[in-house]
Amino acid sequence: MLSRTVRFASLVLAGEFAGLRERWDRLHALRVALNVVGLGFLISGALAEHRR
Q1: What is the rounded CA–CA span in Å between residue 47 and residue 34?
Q2: How far is CA 25 from CA 30, 41, 43, 52, in A?
Q3: Domain extents for the chain?
Q4: Which residues of 9-37 are buried (b: 16+ CB within 10 A; e: fewer)?
Q5: Are 10 and 18 in contact (CB under 8 A)?
Q6: What is the tens place of the pLDDT at every residue in 6-34?
């Protein structure tokens, strides 16, 4: 994966690559946040079901 990133970086200008990298970082942060929220719902659902 790293070699693919390095190869891609050599094909585009540094500024373009930095912009793309920032966009992917934001999308990854959103994905992680949604995973954490989903895990919270999963745990709260399991605990609520256990209390019944």
Answers
A1: 20
A2: 9, 24, 27, 41
A3: 20-52
A4: eeeeeeeeeeeeeeeeeeeeeeeeeeeee
A5: no
A6: 666 566 666 777 788 888 999 999 999 99
Q: Output the CA–CA distances (angstroms, integers) from residue 37 to 10, 21, 42, in the order listed.
A: 37, 24, 9
Distance CA(42)–CA(47), nearest Å, equals 9
Contact between 17 and 8 under an 8 Å Cβ cutoff? The reply is yes
**pTM to 2 decimal places:** 0.62
Residues in the chain: 52
Q: Tell me the one-letter amino acid at 16.
A: E
3-state secondary structure at position 33: helix
